[in-house]
Amino acid sequence: xxxxxxxxxxxxxxxxxxxxxxxxxxxxxxxxxxxxxxxxxxxxxxxxxxxxxxxxxxxxxxxxxxxxxxxxxxxxxxxxxxxxxxxxxxxxxxxxxxxxxxxxxxxxxxxxxxxxxxxxxxxxxxxxxxxxxxxxxxxxxxxxxxxxxxxxxxxxxxxxxxxxxxxxxxxxxxxxxxxxxxxxxxxxxxxxxxxxxxxxxxxxxxxxxxxxxxxxxxxxxxxxxxxxxxxxxxxxxxxxxxxxxxxxxxxxxxxxxxxxxxxxxxxxxxxxxxxxxxxxxxxxxxxxxxxxxxxxxxxxxxxxxxxxxxxxxxxxxxxxxxxxxxxxxxxxxxxxxxxxxxxxxxxxxxxxxxxxxxxxxxxxxxxxxxxxxxxxxxxxxxxxxxxxxxxxxxxxxxxxxxxxxxxxxxxxxxxxxxxxxxxxxxxxxxxxxxxxxxxxxxxxxxxxxxxxxxxxxxxxxxxxxxxxxxxxxxxxxxxxxxxxxxxxxxxxxxxxxxxxxxxxxxxxxxxxxxxxxxxxxxxxxxx
Length: 527
Hints:
The protein has helices spanning 29-64, 66-82, 84-87, 89-94, 100-110, 116-122, 139-169, 175-193, 197-220, 227-251, 257-283, 292-302, 304-309, 312-322, 337-361, 369-399, 405-426, 428-432, 443-448, 457-490, 499-526, and strands at residues 5-8, 11-17, 23-25. The protein is mainly alpha-helical. A 3-stranded antiparallel β-sheet has the order 1-2-3, with no helix packed on it. A hairpin with a 2-residue loop joins strand 1 (5-8) and strand 2 (11-17). It is extended, with a radius of gyration of 35 Å.
């Protein structure tokens, strides 16, 4: 057999004939090395790509919320300062070589365990509402942990020394039983106190530190001669670490819990108003002719009520931490933070109704066009006036000024819209059967005797349900108005006597009302 040549990417292949007549391809040694190099190169490229993506994600996290970067800088600064107790001999000798307790205090106090439960509750909304995940970065959380750590350590050390003295006076045989009984009783009592809601909300961390410190000092005192010195060094180093944490957290770009709670309530009010407008407008404008950008904008508004529903845990934590903070800005030390929780509860009651409205939009049962057009104007007017009231309340809380006459005017407009919608609901039987008297026949009877285009009862249910929910929302908004008025009274909001600001607010409300009116007319035309 004549020798043959094959060409592959410039490499010459030779075929040799074996004695039995078969052929065998000769693979050059350079081809194996080339494949190995390509494999290694692919691994390096893949690793470099993953590193690049990780750096990009880390950069996005920092740019989206610079407060997280500031928090990391605070931790590094506090650890650097407390490390001086190791680097400087006079400070190291002063704490008896127990400077590690100060370092551990800084690490534990800044560790974000306070917000982990809230983090998991809000994880599903992290993309839409990332601001709710900053619970553990606020100043109040650090003050809470520092105070509880110092208090728990001090009480535990004091009691441990006292128990040690009583046990030592009881004799060597009785001493272990006295120490063991004290550990059992005090640890059980402290653990039970953590189950009491009022104690758990304010001193849960302190009770945990009390159990750890008392058990450590009391048990170790049985074998350690200088127990008082051990307790003294532990308490002093923890006080030093906690003091450094407080100074750093309050002097380096402080993030106040009260301000965060105040801003969260205002944002939730705006989102609640946008969701209410978006739901009703979308229901009466389901023509399928909207652009993708408009549909995305409407969907974003509809998602706002979910933020209100998921904010209960963050509101409670911020209100709890706010009680530990000193006076700052417009907030006094005894600011009525609990009233913000009542406002949040009122908003969530409205958000549950908006969730029901969202279900009406997604319902498979389509409402009759005749009834939809008949109730459309009243529903859109009521949703517009209701959202205007919520926005005005948000402006009241934001500026910390007592409500103006605009709020009362919008509230009366909402009540008038409710009355108009109720009248429209009463005229539905007459609309279906003009010869029927609405007061003498039920809605089901009117549907069965209708002489105008036939409308079944199932076609009436969706739009009538939506109208009923809107009326219910208006009643719950009145409760929200009362809660905001109570906050203004307790927090002693300023008098809204600035005519220029009042004029701007009125113009803004009028502009919003004009835009909503245009949306209402457009929705009615689409129906």
